[in-house]
TrEMBL record:
<feature type="transmembrane region" description="Helical">
    <location>
        <begin position="329"/>
        <end position="352"/>
    </location>
</feature>
<keyword id="KW-0812">Transmembrane</keyword>
<dbReference type="InterPro" id="IPR006068">
    <property type="entry name" value="ATPase_P-typ_cation-transptr_C"/>
</dbReference>
<dbReference type="InterPro" id="IPR023298">
    <property type="entry name" value="ATPase_P-typ_TM_dom_sf"/>
</dbReference>
<feature type="transmembrane region" description="Helical">
    <location>
        <begin position="56"/>
        <end position="76"/>
    </location>
</feature>
<feature type="domain" description="Cation-transporting P-type ATPase C-terminal">
    <location>
        <begin position="1074"/>
        <end position="1272"/>
    </location>
</feature>
<dbReference type="Pfam" id="PF00689">
    <property type="entry name" value="Cation_ATPase_C"/>
</dbReference>
<feature type="transmembrane region" description="Helical">
    <location>
        <begin position="1035"/>
        <end position="1058"/>
    </location>
</feature>
<feature type="transmembrane region" description="Helical">
    <location>
        <begin position="96"/>
        <end position="117"/>
    </location>
</feature>
<feature type="transmembrane region" description="Helical">
    <location>
        <begin position="1070"/>
        <end position="1090"/>
    </location>
</feature>
<feature type="transmembrane region" description="Helical">
    <location>
        <begin position="1222"/>
        <end position="1241"/>
    </location>
</feature>
<keyword id="KW-1133">Transmembrane helix</keyword>
<dbReference type="InterPro" id="IPR039720">
    <property type="entry name" value="TMEM94"/>
</dbReference>
<protein>
    <recommendedName>
        <fullName>Cation-transporting P-type ATPase C-terminal domain-containing protein</fullName>
    </recommendedName>
</protein>
<keyword id="KW-0472">Membrane</keyword>
<feature type="transmembrane region" description="Helical">
    <location>
        <begin position="1123"/>
        <end position="1143"/>
    </location>
</feature>
<feature type="transmembrane region" description="Helical">
    <location>
        <begin position="1253"/>
        <end position="1271"/>
    </location>
</feature>
Amino acid sequence: MEINKRPEPLSWAEARRILRNVLESYLDHPPPTQRRDDSTKDSSWLSFLIRHDIDLYFGAFLFSIALLVLSLFSLLARLGHVSDSQLRPSATQGVYKSQLCASISLAIGACGSLWMVRRRRFLSLNDSVNAKRREVMRFLRVVKAFDENDGCDLTEKPHINGTSLTDIYRVCRKAGSAEQWNQIPSLLLVKGDFIALQCGDIAPADCVMLQNGLISDIQIKLGTRLSLQNMGLTKENVLSDLPKGRTTLQPGSTYLLTLCNRTHMFLVLDTPINEFINRPPVTTRPSQSSRQIKAVRQSLSILAIVLLVLTGGILLIRVDLSSNDLSLLLTIPLMAALSVLPTVGPAFLFFLEALATARILATVHPYASLTANQTKEEKTFTRSKLVLRYMVATCLSRLSLWRVADQIRRILAKIFPGLPPAWFNSRLIRIPPASLNLVEKLGVATAFALVDDELACEPHSIPQQLLIPSGQGLKLLDLCPKFADDSDDESTSSIRKKAAKSFDSDSESEDGSSVVFHSSLKRKILRRKIFRRASRKNASDDSTAEDSDSPFDVQFEEPTWWQFLPSLKCIGLASLLLDENRHEEDDTELINCCIKEESDDENVAHDKGLVEKRRALLVKTVCHERRSKQYHSLANCIGFSTSENAHGKNGDVTPFEERLRLHIVSSSLVSERMDLDEHERSSEQSKWWGLLRTDSTSIVVQDSRSKAYQLLTVGDPSVVVDLCHEAWQGEISTILPLRMGDRETILETAENWKLGDLDVAAFSYTPMPRSFEAMFGSNTESQIYLLNNPASGETQHMLSKSKSLSPEWSLMKNQIFLGLLASLVVPRSEIQSLLSTLSDAGVRFVYFSPRNMRRQKELASQMGIDVAWNCAISLRPLETGKEDKYRMTSNYADWDVNAKLPHGVEDVKKHLEEVDNVPLLVSLYTDVTKETTKEMVEVFQDYSDTVISVGLSHFPRNDGIFSAADISVGVDVLTDDQERSNEQIGSFSCPHILQPEIDFVSAIASHSCAFRVRGIPGIAQLTLVIDQGRASLEAAVNASVFFIFGFLTLSLFLLFSVCTPFTNIPYTPVLGVVLFLQIVLPGLGFTLAMSDGDSDTMKRVPPKNDQTVTFSRREGWKLYRNIVIKSVIPALLPQVLYLIVFGELMLEFEPSLTAEMCGGANTWVHIVRCDGLKSYTGPVRISSGVLVLVELVVCVTFASAGFLSRLDCLLNDPPWRRNRTWLLALSLMVIFSFVYCYYALQLRVTAALPWYYYVLAAVMPLICLTWVEFCKKSEIYMEKRAEKLRRLQFETRLGAWSPK
């Protein structure tokens, strides 16, 4: 780019056009399609066959085709065949027709499974890229609709919450003929934008500095943290450019940009979103469940080969190859193999995963990042309807059939015009990609990582301690939260009312004796209490209503606090006036400062003048005063109120009229802020980032009753103490000199509080004589900025001696010190409740904080994180031999000797390899960056943790963390509810940005996330999501195990059929087998997957995801053994019934044949051993096979009750209470079995069977269920034992258990 060229800001239309062109170019040039990585540690031939779906191609598909061919030729061979006395052609022909139909259905199912597996695998290879492309296409459709409406914005004006620390940047763009400064996310910036950056900011794109409106040669690369060095400056040069001495700056002075961490304008050289959307995707780690599925698939493939060989070999040995029933019996080996091959299994697992995913998304839906209108529409749907809609959407997403879905939706809308429009038009949340393995990973999550500091802290500080002068020295007053049920006694209430009546510094003065003021500060430990929000009271109750502006109500713990009311009233009034919003300009008017071009007849301004105006408007934006509500809480605690009362509409501040507001900026503190490391930045400084937070603010007010003037000052202790020469001892209303020892004590206390991340403010005041009234004049509600920049050789403490003070500076002299307030940023209530629930659930809470240990200690303690031994690890590398001055301190002498935890990620890895696992048991990581956070998440995964990461959804720098974590959740604060937006950091109305643009930023930046929740309150609901994830995974596993149980039972039943000692091999109808595989098992399995979790779901510690382990020690062997043992009884018992059924039916329906072939046989015992009936294929054999297969189906159906829960017996939790859907499915399947039996039987056998057959048929399903429950006891014992070991390891104190 040409140097010294003077660029112009883009218009909103031009910026949108550039952004649209970049996105369209991305769609026109898609990234190359990824190929499956076939490299694996398991190089066995069986793994190779499974990885390439050989069991699908040459197993299920080939065998189903073979069965189809066999059935077709068998039917053709029997057509037109004339029967003899032993065979009825009509019956046999119908059997072969049903066999052909079943074979066709089985072949279609195998083809469908093969297509699903191949398509799902192909699409899952590019899930990350496809997710970004879908969001881009959706956004471009919205932009196109916006352009078609001639740019008419039909959406509400969104509020933009955040600072440049949270990726919200100031940009200058044209709107019509005016230039405006707005706040927008970095992904909406485009090439050619003007942005404002300050020292400490991270460049959102490649940019170049603008100097006097011209492009300079100073370029900043994407991701570079700005400093004076890379801006070509030094701290000495910056400070030397400021006016010397104690001078007055005008509100629009450009020196204020220098004082605001050297804020400067830059030109964006590249569109940030272009680099973001072209980042290569990250390969996700497989879950243990996926490895177990592959292992089970390998075992079943081996079992299929064994069954095929074994069943076929036995059959060929026992059957005469010239027998006329060979075509009926040859299907048995094929069906035995197909029962355990992936014929219907892949389709079942596909829909099972879709169902489990739908259950999770239906839980997320009420808290998801949808618009308010969409959320209201979705409330009309019940949970069952939501689950159904999400299941359909998940299936369509997995197979990429959205076009087909749109056509079906239009057809249904025409067929059923009466259905609610929300059924067709309402928006669901985005379906997570298949490669994420949401169900498998969410159900076994072991670590919960909070990666953004803004999600952990309340937006405003809370008063904690107040240090005031007293007769016995400095008095420390503790403040604590006031709960809804707290009430003051009558005396305290009357005192509070007296405190708010008036403000007169002399009215309550008393003659006091001499006091000792120069005493040392009594050290007190800060109380670690959980602050709660004040309950919202009825606004109509004027007598008891509190100010809604106060986020928390606090009260003094000291019962005699009222004795200090004379000085506390001054502090309360100063707090209330400082936080009053009567002098704040409207956010929209302030942040959207505009430069209107002058017309030709008004002499259009030169370029240099426009640059100066642009810079002056930037000054106005950075000088915006952020409301610090801790002052409002303190004023309410003392007894002040802004609610309408007898004083007037504004309550107790009504009599006081603000005449002047003076802001002091100290060059020495500016110098410290420029040198401030990013990890040293306090919580309150982060909330003021991007704004000029002056070092002190003085307010001159006039009491309308007495016409007296008062000057009240609130600010940094080092500045305020320098302005004071006296101190007010409140309990005796005495003013004494503020000596040097007192100053040192106050400043030392303030410094210690600051190191603990407390926000410290000092209070002072002075009455003003009426002679200063002429200075105010008519300049009502004006603001003046004062700069304290001593010349070389001049100290900071020469205010009273300096003779070159500006008139405004002369107002600041001879003030009276009132007290020192320490405020603490407390954790959000959502985080506090979340942490305790996660601890019970065995999920380790991990907090990644950008601040150092000492600053983060108190906040971590308030959250409930252990801050004792081995409490935190700094991820900032520490040079060898150096000490970390920000390390946590301990009262124990051996802390600094023994507690030497690693510094930096590399040291953590080395410690884990050589020492112990203590770094993985720590819940607090400090001094982090986004890069070190990502590396630490990968370390957790390397040591078998399944990590859930939670962060801001619009933050593109979180993309690396989101992609690395197993499951990521984005928190959408940009589209949070309107009532909460006013509480956020730097919330401004942006009239030119569209709500779809905000939605697009959150969606594209969090494309790696499983889902997004709306607003920070949604974080507290993530425990419900984890609970549902565990319940869904457990139910899906139970359904899958039942499915394998059903497969294995059928295959063993077929094996037992050919191994029977009877002379006549039982016939197994192919149609019945196919119906069992394609209807009965899926019907029961799907309803099993709908089971809710038990009451202990969130009290169990999940297993680790060790990538080198498929099953834990002997777990696989126990799984296979238990399934086989459970399957033996249901497969064996129906064979016993075959004895009775075949014998009794032969005696009843084939008496002549029986007499001829079996001689004098008159009982079923003789019939089943008769060699003459070995080749009989008449209707009795067909009907007997149908009855036995139906009995098998009923036994399996009842046995499914034992798979509702793996860890509980049916007697403890009856199935009809836990899963009513399964109970309905069981009833339907039993009825379906009887209907099939009725139509498949070729004889009416009801009266022919003896009574004990019906007794056995009714008892056998119960026996099977009892057997399954009995076998489950060993599983319960082993699982509970393993869970106790996991709980022991999880709750082990840090350093007490070192596996190395």
